[in-house]
From TrEMBL:
The keyword Oxidoreductase applies. This is Nitroreductase. It comes from Dialister hominis. SUPFAM superfamilies: FMN-dependent nitroreductase-like. Belongs to the nitroreductase family. GO terms for molecular function: oxidoreductase activity. Keywords: Oxidoreductase. Pfam families: Nitroreductase (PF00881). InterPro entries: Nitroreductase, Nitroreductase-like. The lineage of its organism: Bacteria, Bacillati, Bacillota, Negativicutes, Veillonellales. Residues 9-160 form the Nitroreductase domain.
Length: 180
């Protein structure tokens, strides 16, 4: 798929076929996601692929109770990727002092870059994704036994799309672009 077409055609998918994902499919998507730029090449992003149905459903039921739409979306997806960032790498000097006035902002920036690459790579491989940001982080870390220095940046549902929704309308370019 041509790059521009792949970027433009990527959608948030909420309906998937029951076809399971293979470890190889996940590896292909994550390998591309790893190419996203990051703070001083610290490569702070970690990916936890959840292919086990019982574990995926446990995350849905125990980690998104206050956000039922995410519970439903997780149940619908054949797999999840829990995208994490290692604390204290993005935006910091080797001695731990902040490199900029933005503090932990760069950690979120690096995670967003990785998530975008992951979603576009999945689209290029004819997979659908949905990025979710409402969840109980402490509970996810407990269930997956994640290290203390991992921050859960987002949950990404992934699978073979059953329905690809239409694009949402975008603001006019003159509203979002300024030339000086």
């Amino acid at each position: 798929m041509e790059a521009i077409s792949c970027l433009i055609s990527r959608r948030s998918v909420r309906e998937y076929t029951r076809e399971p994902l293979s470890q190889q499919e996940i590896e292909n998507v994550v390998e591309t996601s790893q190419m996203a730029s990051c703070w001083e090449n610290t490569q702070p992003i970690r990916y936890i692929a959840v292919l086990d149905e019982d574990l995926k459903n446990r995350i849905a039921d125990e980690c998104t109770k206050k956000f039922p739409w995410n519970t439903e979306n997780i149940h619908e997806a054949p797999a999840l990727i829990i995208l994490c960032a290692i604390k204290g790498l993005s935006g910091y000097e080797p001695d731990g002092t902040p490199s900029t006035t933005k503090g932990t902002h760069w950690q979120s920036f690096d995670a967003g870059m990785a998530a975008s690459y992951l979603c576009v790579a999945a689209n290029a491989l004819e997979l659908g994704t949905l990025v979710m940001g409402r969840y109980d982080e402490a509970k996810i870390k407990e269930i997956l036994d994640l290290p203390e220095n991992y921050d859960v940046s987002c949950i990404i549902a992934i699978g073979h799309p059953a329905v690809i929704p239409a694009a949402n309308e975008r603001k006019p370019l003159k509203e979002v672009l300024t030339f000086r």
